[in-house]
Design goal:
The chain is mostly helical.
Length: 69
């Protein structure tokens, strides 16, 4: 018999989230809407997914060497 313990970690809630209006078309292209995250719980995996989408979109737009800081 095996015992498995899984710690999924804490969920986080956005306190605030602001984006630059100039980035709106870029964010819309990846399906990102800031209002979807306000006052809602999210996991770090969701952030990783958004980051991946941003980098993929940048590459598709001709910026293959972009990185997120």
């Amino acid at each position: 018999m095996y015992h498995v313990f899984i710690h999924v970690g804490a969920r986080y809630t956005w306190a605030s989230l602001r984006t630059n209006p100039a980035d709106a078309p870029f964010l819309a292209a990846i399906g990102f809407r800031p209002d979807d995250f306000l006052s809602k719980k999210f996991s770090p995996d969701e952030i990783v997914n958004i980051e991946k989408k941003l980098l993929d979109e940048a590459e598709n737009r001709g910026f293959p060497l972009q990185k997120l800081v």
